[in-house]
Specification:
24% strand; single chain; 2 helices; alpha+beta; five-stranded mixed beta sheet; globular
């Protein structure tokens, strides 16, 4: 199974639907031209189709672009639409929740606890 690890520096979700006939080159141009971001940075860029039953993830890995896609057979992804921003910033954990079918706009994880002693 291929899933993003929780140590990914940044995940950016394009809020508006994208024409899924676009491949690696078209999505990389969209990241740079429309989203005004660097497609070569160590980040994930997430796109959804109009029906919200498919997601594409674009990222640069050392010497080339990678494109990962997931298609749901019956359900739809809960896509954040209420944000006024064109790009929504997520954590890798939130992306995994989105891929699992959770509505990330309503789901908040427990806070991280850091202790130095049990005494």
């Amino acid at each position: 199974m291929m899933r993003p690890s929780n140590d990914i520096p940044a995940v950016y979700l394009c809020r508006d639907p994208v024409d899924f006939r676009r491949g690696i080159n078209g999505l990389a141009v969209l990241v740079e031209d429309t989203l005004r971001m660097n497609p070569f940075a160590e980040q994930l860029y997430i796109f959804c189709n109009r029906r919200r039953n498919q997601i594409k993830v674009l990222y640069w890995e050392a010497n080339g672009f990678c494109l990962w896609q997931k298609r749901l057979e019956k359900s739809r992804f809960y896509w954040p639409r209420k944000s006024s921003e064109e790009v929504v910033t997520l954590t890798a954990q939130q992306l995994n929740w989105l891929l699992d079918g959770y509505d990330i706009s309503r789901l908040q994880p427990h806070g991280k606890l850091c202790y130095t002693s049990v005494l």
